[in-house]
Amino acid sequence: MRLAILGYGNLGRGIEANVALNDDMELKYIFTRRNPSDIKTSSNAKVVCSSEIETYKDDIDVLILCGGSATDLPEQTPKYAKMFNVVDSFDTHAKIPEHFDKVNSSAISCDKVAIISVGWDPGLFSLNRMISNAILPKGCDYTFWGKGISQGHSDAIRRIEGVLDARQYTIPIDDAINTIKDGKTPEFTARQMHRRECFVVVEDGADKAKIEQEIKTMPNYFEPYDTSVHFISEEELKQNHSKIPHGGFVIRSGQTGFNFENKHIIEYNLKLDSNPHFTSCVLLAYARAAYRLYQEKDYGCKTVFDIAPKYLINKNDDFLRKTML
Amino acid sequence: MRLAILGYGNLGRGIEANVALNDDMELKYIFTRRNPSDIKTSSNAKVVCSSEIETYKDDIDVLILCGGSATDLPEQTPKYAKMFNVVDSFDTHAKIPEHFDKVNSSAISCDKVAIISVGWDPGLFSLNRMISNAILPKGCDYTFWGKGISQGHSDAIRRIEGVLDARQYTIPIDDAINTIKDGKTPEFTARQMHRRECFVVVEDGADKAKIEQEIKTMPNYFEPYDTSVHFISEEELKQNHSKIPHGGFVIRSGQTGFNFENKHIIEYNLKLDSNPHFTSCVLLAYARAAYRLYQEKDYGCKTVFDIAPKYLINKNDDFLRKTML
After folding, report:
1. C-alpha dihedral (A38, A39, A44, A50), degrees to nearest 10
2. Which of A29, B83, B96, B204 could hold A4 in an S-S bridge, CB 3.0 to 4.6 Å?
3. Which tens digit of pLDDT belongs to each residue from B255-292?
């Protein structure tokens, strides 16, 4: 499989670093909006200006879109699904139906396969929510994130006047987790499920009390949560907070029986040293699926719900039944 | 969907108790090898002698086979896959390829859909092993079972002279779990991963020391494990050990990066009050998939690897993308 990526940020670099874990894949091109000669890569992939992408149509089996969900993917995925089989990690949950419809029109019209919203949430977490709901129709779902860095919340802090840099950790609250694992199914407020911990580097002479107040009262981002703020030096930030760990878990707590007398808990749990590395590995597995569906002429836009698991792995069906079933 | 079951043991009763959780399903028939008039059911399903099953061919969308893997299913599934869409929970891992081939021939020859080895292991655990391997090609797999009742091990104890009844709990060992969750990937012996705890009721005057010795040295079943034996009264067994809880978890510990510098842990964890109830719910979801694949004329034998997740749930694709992705 000949792969290419569009976008060379954390996610694109994750693809580059992990494509070799899959011996049926090769990363041939890195498309970028920047000047290709400014880009220093870590592989033999050719760096090409994204304006030339269409000329590579016949030399790429799947294009993995590594841009952001806010402005890149809503425009890129429908556009490139007309030229390539594509996979993206579109993660604005509320806008997924609209994105799906646009991408589906493009892919169908040009006999291509597109898989959207691939990663771990949306993605693997969605898959587990859905399968658990299918098996335990009566029950409650809980999704916890963290402990991990939230890029969006870190960015929100960075926009405050006087702040030079920041990292925000989302941390699930043990009391809530233990309550659920005991088989109880309460409705939690946001504050009861997660807390937020911020490490902030400020300008010399900045008003720390004011910045802390501004963070803690920020609507949607921090106000609904218990938030702690630590002011640290730039050095300390680099030394202790330069990794991008994340994770989280999805729990379905369900009941069975004529009188709902039996409780069952299904938990799917991820602990990730590097969020972009793991996400890139999920994208690679679904890129394989996109290529196989294309070979079967099963065109159009798909999500994780539509794809038989066997398409994700580089093993034949006999081997899978013999070794993994 | 009009369902029927063949076999009315723990699993069959689980189906009967939980079919109503799915509002697109109805249990119409219970087929049994016993005298139907001897069977007391808890529902309105009609009890019919299994010898008459063929006459109900056109009145059943999916037949769920609730027999055992040792002698029932190897004969029943290939036989009934010629008359019905079927789902079974065949769990003799080593014989799955052979079972698959036989069932596939039957189903293909008569335009039926069969889904085999459905449950949680094989089944949901297999699905997670496979998907985790696809995403993290470099890594190690670990499967733990318990704490829960092993029917096979309980039966093995019951066959010892002087034993009236017994329950055997399989218990995963915390040290092993914690080592893996720390990101280490050792190779464990059987003894390092699980221990076995037995509650045994014996005849008056039985030689307890001899029975304990016989249990602990039983090859394959107990000899490779640290086993503890408790002699209790029949009353105590009924009071404290009459439920059939189970569970367990599958962990993939994988590495990513040019130098495998990032560790990632994927864990799938089940805690089940009732093993047969939960297994029956998995069978019901896959019965729905069998019926849908049949409507799409996608005949033949399938496993959990072959089935797109959306086929498992009673919701349309738009709703799934909007609410669960």
Report:
1. -90
2. A29
3. 999 999 999 999 999 999 999 999 999 999 999 999 99
Task: Report ipTM for this prediction.
Answer: 0.95
Which of B132, B135, B144, B274 to probe the A interface (max A CBs under 10 A)? B135
Q: From start to end of B155-217, where are the E strands? A: 163-172, 194-202
Residue type, B225: Y
* Secondary structure of residue A136 in the 3-state scheme: coil
Best A256, A314, A319 residue to mutate vs chain B (most B CBs within 10 Å)? A256
Query: Helix, strand, coil % (nearest 5) of chain A?
Result: 40, 25, 30
Cα A128-A130-A134 angle, rounded to 5 deg: 115
A:183-242 residues touching chain B, CB 8 A cutoff = none
Rounded to 5 degrees, φ, ψ at B129 are -55, -45
- Chain A residues 46-75 within an 8 A CB cutoff of chain B: none
What is the token pair recorded at A297? 């002429």
Contacts of A207 (CB under 8 A, 6+ apart): A162
Cβ contacts of A42 within 8 Å, gap of 6 or more: A13, A16, A17, B258
State the DSSP string of A55-117: GGGGG-SEEEE-S-TTTHHHHHHHHHTTTSEEE-----GGGHHHHHHHHHHHHHHTT-EEE-S
Of B133, B135, B262, the CB nearest to A324: B133
What are the strands, taking DSSP E only, across A116-217?
Answer: 139-145, 148-149, 163-172, 194-202
Write down the mean pLDDT value for chain B.
96
